[in-house]
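I am writing to request your help with a piece of structural work I have in hand. I set the record out below, with my sincere thanks for your time.
___
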Amino acid sequence: MQTEFTLTYDGPALRGHEMNVRDLAPAMLGVGEVFEALNRLYNGKAADVAVNVRAHQPACFTVVFDVSQAIKSATEFLSGTELTAALNLKDLLFGTGGVGVGLILLVRKLRGRMPERVEKLTPGMFRLFLEGEHYDVPLELLQAYKELSVRKALEKFITKPLAKPGIDVMKIESGGREIERVTEEEAPYFAAPDVPDDVIIDDTRRAAYTISNLSFDEDGLWQLNDGNNPIRVSIEDTEFLRKVEADIIRFAKHDVLVCMVHFVQRRTAKGGVANEYTVVEVLEHIPAPRQLRFPEPEEGPDDDPA
């Protein structure tokens, strides 16, 4: 299964038919990544897709891409699992063939934003509402619009090249006709959206911390230790901070603070986990030991009886 298309960047900076390799390489990788992401989204491990540069044409800066697909899993194929072919992947992206609206056109219409409301019309068709307008799209297109890896790949070969001075348009051609075009004014719509962190844990707990460093860091956060790891903590106990400022409370390294702590743990957009500590109230300040602990002295013969 194979298809092809032509990608052209144009503008005053490309009149010499040249493009800086630092701009070209990420853009070309972005084209490959968007097809890989779409193939993975629709076909999983059942098929592989390869995107190859076949030729450069001496006009503006033009690259011809071959998109080929090979069945990877015979089990999936023999079981009757429906595969989304390379040609259909191209149609979903650029809106050719029987798909009508493609992903690039949908991003342009929505200006890269999330819809305010989604209505299910049929099992395979959805209506997206935004600012008084609505757009009917198939399930496959909705899935592609929501897929972060797809949106990041679009940014690589649309937004970033068109942000370069002197590059003002990107065109896609297939079968000898232009099927899609993005201008530099529209390029920001194709930037990958920021993904808010997901809150995993949000609670307030009692905890004890040792003071790792007597100075604040550059963000004004306290540097404490929870017994296993150093942590950076914001303290919001105004009475405690007032006493510190007035030199009523003095600290030494390894002193312990017993606190009520607001703890928030988030899953970040990159897939990691971030922890946030806020001391709501300092319950107790326990100085580090300054002397060895001796047994309490026993009563001697000269002691007065109790």
Remarks:
- The helical segments are 21-43, 74-78, 86-94, 103-110, 139-146, 148-162, 238-245.
